[in-house]
């Protein structure tokens, strides 16, 4: 499945043996440009290339709109889950991001707990949010 979907992912970062891949899509049918609302869906794949089992504990997002306004989002897990990944396993989820501008960006990190003890952070790569010119 990774080979079939691998080409979808436009952005990737590896930290301490965890790869985070991102594919982002502008959603015109969920946007309301006339009301100043643009919407994107992002697909995240987390890959555990470590020797230990890991559990996603928290997320930290830095969302920046086209005016430079920054919104920090911290929370437990992702989409209501705290996935556990054994060595070699992957976890996929899809979520969305609304903005009040046609352009912006997202980046951040996940905090994981390790079966060997301790916690570590894995970077979520920077990715742009850009509506097509006719939508902005």
Automatic annotation (TrEMBL):
Residues 12-136 form the ApaG domain. It comes from the Bacteria. This is Co2+/Mg2+ efflux protein ApaG. Coiled coil: none annotated. The lineage of its organism: Bacteria, Pseudomonadati, Pseudomonadota, Alphaproteobacteria, Sphingomonadales. InterPro entries: ApaG-like, ApaG_domain, ApaG_sf.
């Amino acid at each position: 499945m990774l080979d079939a979907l691998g080409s979808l992912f436009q952005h990737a970062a590896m930290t301490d043996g965890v790869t985070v891949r991102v594919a982002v899509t502008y959603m015109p049918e969920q946007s309301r440009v006339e009301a100043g609302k643009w919407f994107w869906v992002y697909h995240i794949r987390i890959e555990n290339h470590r020797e230990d089992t890991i559990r996603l504990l928290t997320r930290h997002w830095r969302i920046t709109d086209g005016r430079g306004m920054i919104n920090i989002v911290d929370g437990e897990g992702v989409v209501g889950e705290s996935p556990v990944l054994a060595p070699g396993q992957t976890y996929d989820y899809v979520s969305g991001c609304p903005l009040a501008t046609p352009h912006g960006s997202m980046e951040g990190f996940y905090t994981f707990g390790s079966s060997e003890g301790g916690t570590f952070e894995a970077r979520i790569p920077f990715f742009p949010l850009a509506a097509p010119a006719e939508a902005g």
